Amino acid sequence: MTDDQLDGPGRAVGRVLGTADATPLQFWTAVSPDSYLQLDDVVVTRRELPDREPVTIAGVVTQVRARHEGAQFDSDVFAIADGTLPAQVQEAAEITTTRVDPEFYVPPAPGAAVYRAEGDARARALHFDRMERRIPMGMGRDGVPVYLNADFLDGSRGAHVSISGISGVATKTSFATFLLYSVFRSGVLGGDAVNAKALIFNVKGEDLLFLDHPNLRLDDATRASYAKLGLDAGAFPDVRVYAPPRVGDSSGTPDVSSRLTGVDSFYWTLSEFCADRLLPYVFADADDERQQYTMVVHSVAAHLARYAQPADGGVSLDGVRLGSYADLVDHIVEQLNDDETRADWAGSAVGLGTVNAFARRLIGSKKDLGRLIRGDLALRRPHSINTAESAQVTVVDLHNLPDRAQRFVVGVTLKSEFERKEKAGTAKPLLFVVLDELNKYAPREGSSPIKEVLLDIAERGRSLGVILVGAQQTASEVERRIVTNSAIRVVGRLDPAEASRPEYGFLPPAQRQRALLAKPGTMFVNQPDIPVPLCLEFPFPAWATRVSEAGRAPSETLRSITQSVDPFAVVGSGADDDIPF
Fold first, then answer.
1. Residue 559, pLDDT above cutoff 60
2. How far from chain centre, in Å, is Cα 374?
């Protein structure tokens, strides 16, 4: 009986090549004339040993080549094509080993039959059989589900996800939201899924404001893809959306245009700004990181926390009632310009030039932060972003805010959420934080309050149940410790210059080249369980990604927190019930 007739794990596709070195970790296989192998295919072979059980060697195709055997010159290809020169076309595939079972590391024998791994053999080759809790991520190139080990996502053995790729092409945010959907709906969290939370910062357009609306473009093929992954195709069932107040609107109406229901305004009162020492987050952009007025920032923040008293929505300071952020800034600048009070606010060892630099930056923040730090809105009105009291998925819309205001919101929100988890002292319920443009908030160089919070999450968040899902165009520009602490690394379409950076050293050479051509929806996922990144395609979102795709949302998400608390709110504001004024 020949090797081809043996009961293998799948179909025989070739034999281990004898003209190239075969090692326990990498080998080449000649592909049979009636078969083929493509990149990412999973194969398996067997090595017979004397006095030991056979060793099964499984791997993933990481390169494929074809050549004419019998040709000596480049021009011979024309003679071969005309039939005047005999030659044979031979394809060969490079196999990178993913599993050796039992772990006896010997090379496969040249000439040994190589099989396409299917069914249980494929699951063993990719270590899926060792994953007690598997999260479906998408389909492999063979159309079979690919899984993520939940232990490396929820903090059991690792945590955090880093997603890199070109903006608008790599579908980073789409993959992050699909991963969240899979985590919440696959049953992998068991009973903890009910209480698990997600905090998503929306920085581009209003595409993430419709996660609770079913996608009208969903077809039967897409529903079948979800079913193959063990998921129901649908929208996120429990979503709460927060947006900043409109500029110049004294009523605090949310600044959104496409979604008119189920949106709440978020802001901070002047009293909260002073008492919680939020001033450092006003100075959190790239320019501030290089300045010398940090001492002034913290001195002024301490002074505000000590002496500012709540006063009818605003604060009272030095006997003066301040009713807006602009009033507060003007008062601080006035005190710093007064020779008699400057030392009380900034300290005696600070030079006048440093104080003036601080004052200029503070004055410049009035326009950006005026609508976020308020003294004219009712204190009892719900306005805080608190995932513990919100829906399962909380979306914070930032796209209408200038850069300084975006940094302030991200920094303060992450600070408060992380402190809340620290006080709880337990990892559960889990909190997933999805943040795009991570290279802006945690750049490789410099320091800022936001970067310190993100570093805290990356280094200590695992033990507290805070999982960072960070996305960026360039991982090479993100703080190294954040990338290093990410157990899961995902790559979509890459820029050629970025692909050559050492941060992508986990990608085999062929995958680096393919990342330059990857179409939207194609991702390369590296996880600790598997030595080779897996290429996958995740299905089209079952939730609306823009207003034109949005179907009817669940009725419970159409009412905002403000309406559910305020007895004077309009009752029953459903999708078809417009407010008549």
1. no
2. 31
Convert the pLDDT of each residue in 76-106 to its tens digit.
899 999 988 998 999 999 999 999 999 999 9
Q: pLDDT tens digits, residue range 38-61? A: 999 999 999 999 988 999 999 999
Q: Are 127 and 65 in contact (CB under 8 A)?
A: no
Give the Cα separation of 92 and 383 in Å (integer). 63
Nearest to 176 by CA among 4, 497, 500, 433: 433
Is the Cβ–Cβ distance between 355 and 342 less than 8 Å? yes
Sole residue written with tokens 């993430």: 208
How far is 319 from 296, CA to CA, in rounded Å? 22
The beta strand positions in 133-191, using DSSP E, are: 134-139, 145-149, 161-164
What one-character-per-residue DSSP string does 333-372 give? Answer: HHHHHSTTTHHHHH-TTS-HHHHHHHHHHHHHTHHHHTTT
Which residues is 449 bridged to in the sheet?
none
Q: How far apart are the first and last CA of the chain?
A: 85
Which residues, at least 6 apart from 405, have a Cβ–Cβ distance to it below 8 Å? 244, 368, 369, 372, 398
* C-beta of residue 183 within 8 angstroms of C-beta of residue 417: no
Q: Which residues pair with 94 in a beta bridge?
A: 28, 63
